[in-house]
Write a structure and sequence with these properties.
The protein is α+β, with helices and mostly antiparallel strands and 378 residues long. The strands form 4 sheets. The protein has a 6-stranded mixed beta sheet, with helices on both faces.
Length: 378
């Protein structure tokens, strides 16, 4: 969910030695040394995840708890999202906003009853924790979890593999979670992910992470998958990458994330507004003419990969936007992209031209996800 950085003093996850043993090519990412791919290569890893199950180390992500009777109302004051009414062990997508309505980070959170469990982007986690502590630390206890790793097991056969180790995970459906135990390690597992496939994210104490990863990799369906395929999978699923497709200059409405803002927080809702940038965002929701740009999906009509930050033009050669994420889709064997365009060009099937090495590449606006989601809803 976040873009790379190239800081010199790189941290490592509890699986660093395992990545090396598996022959991973390591790269700097969000301040960590992370596996971008393994010897089988990005294309094979991507296709394996779509047909079987892939194991991702996402321990660079930030994990934290909010505790106290006021935690839900406090967190809701920072996001345009319904936190208060979220059911027990239900998960939801959230957006931390600045006073202009720009997105500080996107995150996942779960109501675990005794606390709220948050997962935030790796490159943003220090700033996110500081922001949360500053604004609501007087209303609830903010507890970072640096002693926990995070594994993602994704793909149509993920449940087959994981249920051999932890049979009870079959009770979960998409965007729910629960507490589990494996070989004495207390786990929290959600049925969710960043690939568009069925799958799980597993919060595990650092000391149990390598053994759990090796146990999962011992299952015949499971292969190790790096950040390269994680990026191509999430783009096919039409999911935003923080730092590319959303950032502090984009509002949720510009980013086409209206679905993430429940009716109760919108104009006329029981808890309307009351979040940073509410005046701007509520106005954009009520009057789309206030938008100067909108995020869309694009498919290229020629087999020429179109990458960020390529300029987008109309047929007359006028600039109308730019690419924020783009690559050749391994599943579709066709170039796909996310982009911001002027609202007049946001309708599905609108022709648009990307400029690649000085030449126009014809594209058209397409609905996302590019590859149909395969979430397990029960």
């Amino acid at each position: 969910m976040t873009a790379a950085d190239n800081s010199s003093a790189l941290r490592t996850t509890p699986l660093f030695a395992l990545h090396q043993k598996l022959g991973a090519r390591m790269v700097p990412f969000a301040g960590y040394s992370m596996p971008v791919q393994y010897p089988q290569g990005l294309m094979a890893e991507h296709l394996h995840t779509r047909k079987a199950a892939g194991l991702f180390d996402v321990s660079h992500m930030g994990q934290l708890l909010l505790r106290g009777p006021d935690a839900a109302a406090a967190l809701e004051s920072l996001m345009p999202v319904d936190v208060i009414d979220l059911g027990l062990h239900k998960q939801r997508y959230g957006l931390l906003l600045n006073e202009q309505g720009g997105i500080l980070d996107d995150l996942m959170f779960v109501n675990r009853g005794d606390d709220l469990f948050l997962i935030v982007n790796g490159a943003c986690k220090a700033d996110d924790i500081a922001h949360i502590q500053k604004h609501i630390g007087s209303r609830c206890e903010v507890v970072p979890l640096p002693e926990h790793a995070l594994l993602a097991l994704q793909g149509p056969q993920a449940v087959t593999a994981l249920s051999r180790l932890i049979p009870e995970v079959t009770s979960l459906v998409f965007m729910t979670g629960n507490h589990f135990n494996w070989q004495g390690h207390a786990l929290y597992i959600t049925r969710s992910g960043y690939t568009g496939e069925d799958g799980f994210e597993i919060s595990v104490p650092n000391e149990g992470a390598e053994a759990l990863a090796e146990a999962l990799l011992a299952q015949p369906e499971v292969a190790p998958i790096g950040l390269g395929a994680r990026n191509s999978l999430r783009l096919e699923a039409g999911l935003c990458l923080y730092g590319n497709d959303i950032d502090t200059t984009t509002t949720p409405v510009e980013a086409a994330l209206n679905w993430a803002m429940q009716k109760v927080r919108r104009a006329g809702g029981a808890r309307e507004g009351g979040f940073p940038g509410a005046a701007t965002i509520l106005a954009q929701l009520q009057d789309p003419k206030q938008l100067s740009r909108k995020r869309v999906g694009l498919i290229a009509l020629e087999r020429i990969p179109v990458r960020e930050p390529a300029e987008l033009q109309n047929a007359a050669g006028q600039k109308i936007g730019h690419i924020t994420s783009g690559l050749l889709s391994p599943t579709l064997n066709q170039p796909v992209a996310l982009a911001y365009v002027q609202p007049d060009y946001a309708a599905v099937d609108t022709p648009i031209f990307a400029i690649v090495r000085g030449k126009q590449v014809p594209m058209k606006v397409a609905a996302t996800p590019f590859v149909p989601a395969n979430y397990y809803r029960g």
